[in-house]
């Protein structure tokens, strides 16, 4: 499993040579950053005292930001609304291209200052929190593949403008083999003018996981902070993250992730009572959930760190030493996906904690589609997820595998990662579930699971379960025996569910999928001895239409169109 990073070694080499030179430079820079006035006032005091004052001063002051007209587009995090009808044909084309290339409104972003102001979104209580004097410094690693100029540079400037200089060791921009021209020479030149910003490049498209490993290999700060390439850091974002790590290097921490609207670039944030934590579903996708009661009950204040079973993956800080001990990332993971759950499970199972820090806010552009090319012909997310399931999930991995009928395919070699787990002497996945995420729905508790096949025709109950499919009628589809949208579980309290979606009937023609509410009612079903599926509330039975395409609810009669085979599996 050898990776050729290319630039990494060279940089490390260069670094050695310039270490001394840079140290001098760093001292000089720091001195330059102090207000000369302060120094002048201090002359005459004894030198020890002066040092203290300087250190204090350094902690307080942020770099000066260039003046931006407060009425400029997007200032204060406000929305930029563009009336496309008023654009000239050329501008319209620019507008469309921007969306096409980035899956967000690049045209709007280009209108906004790289130094735009954001509201101070912190809870007032945050300002009472005190942090250690000698917080560790951080390298911020930003990986990108074909990112828009204004969005990437706004990320960079928001880091510089809102981080106390002595805590920001460097920003490492990792170019994952982009082919856009602006990311080549122009970025190099721009970065050279900014102190502390380095550009490193992969030699081929590696995907975000190995790109992050390249960033890791050249980073020198005590803490590593990873950010996506379309973020904006809000006032005071950094100290609370570093402060928590300073208490114990095993604290892995993430900011509250605000939403930068993909269309208007409006910056929205979450108050302490709206903050969500990370969960996962059995198809191993990451999702958000409200703070569970067993987490909330242990918090003394709304600005306390919030324990989170998983993390989104893109925005977090970790002690560089601890990241090393913990085995960084799995270099066998490609392009995108899986690494966030892998690291989440690993942190918890191997002695660390994962927390969201309510006083730290960073915005991220959430997109509806992925704009860049993935590896074709390989389902990389599935491959990455199987790698993590094999290494970390023990017998629980089967709940994931059932979802695609154990069609694992080639997921490469995971021996090294299994050795890592042994070396670290980690807890079992069962321990993780019971101690960190006790209210997780575990399919092993299901009474029946798998496809639900009609006796009348080889048709199965079929529906996606996600925000876009909630409230929509559930229909029938030819059985494909591959799990996926035909995989359903009957829970102990009568829900027919997948992840957090439940079959729900409230009268009328159709059954719909609806978020599970755990209250029985419209979501209570019985799979009866005669293989009918009975809805207690309305006393009706599931029935397929004569052509087999539709699912309806009818008075129970026991005809073939009301008889179902539900593949059962004994809990593994
Ligand atoms: O091949 C690639 N090489 C890269 O360098 C593909 C992507 N990337 C870069 C890309 O430019 C971006 O900066 O990697 C970063 C993440 O890719 P996005 O922004 O296209 O994806 P995303 O925001 O949906 O990614 C989320 O899930 C990923 C799973 O692998 C990573 O963990 C991302 O970091 C994660 N993003 C967040 O957690 C931000 C909050 C979103 C949520 C929920
Ligand atoms: Mn992203």
Strand content: 15-25%
On the 0-100 scale, what is the average pLDDT? 89
Shape: globular
Bound ligands, each once? ligand LR7, manganese (II) ion
The largest sheet is: 5 strands, mixed
The number of E-state strands comes to 25
Ends apart, CA distance between termini: 32 Å
**Uncertain regions spanning at least 5 consecutive residues:** 1-57
Which class do the helix and strand fractions yield?
alpha+beta
Please compute the radius of gyration using only Cα atoms. Answer: 27 Å
Question: How much helix, percentage-wise, in residues?
Answer: 25-40%
Strand order of the largest sheet: 3-2-1-4-11
Given the structure, what is the number of helices?
16
Description of the molecule:
There is one protein chain. The relative contact order is 0.09. Helix content is 30%, strand content 20%. The chain is globular. It is built from 16 helices and 25 strands. The chain is of the alpha+beta class and 572 residues long. Mean pLDDT is 89; it is low at 1-57. The chain binds ligand LR7 and manganese (II) ion. Manganese (II) ion is lined by residues 228, 230, 314, 364. Manganese (II) ion (MN) binds next to loops.
Secondary structure layout plus pairing:
Blueprint: H1 7-33, H2 36-42, H3 47-60, H4 89-102, H5 106-111, E1 138-144, H6 149-162, E2 168-175, H7 185-193, E3 197-201, H8 208-218, E4 223-227, E5 231-233, H9 238-247, E6 251-260, E7 267-268, E8 276-280, E9 286-290, H10 293-296, E10 306-307, E11 316-319, H11 320-325, H12 339-349, E12 353-365, H13 380-392, H14 397-402, H15 415-424, H16 429-436, E13 448-450, E14 452-454, E15 459-462, E16 475-478, E17 488-490, E18 496-498, E19 501-504, E20 512-515, E21 525-527, E22 533-535, E23 540-544, E24 551-555, E25 564-566
Parallel strand pairs: 1-2, 1-4, 2-3, 6-12
Antiparallel strand pairs: 4-11, 5-12, 6-7, 8-9, 10-12, 13-17, 14-25, 15-16, 17-18, 18-19, 19-20, 21-22, 22-23, 23-24
Helix pairs in contact: 1-8, 12-13
This protein binds ligand LR7 and manganese (II) ion.
Residues 228, 230, 314, 364 line the site of manganese (II) ion (MN).
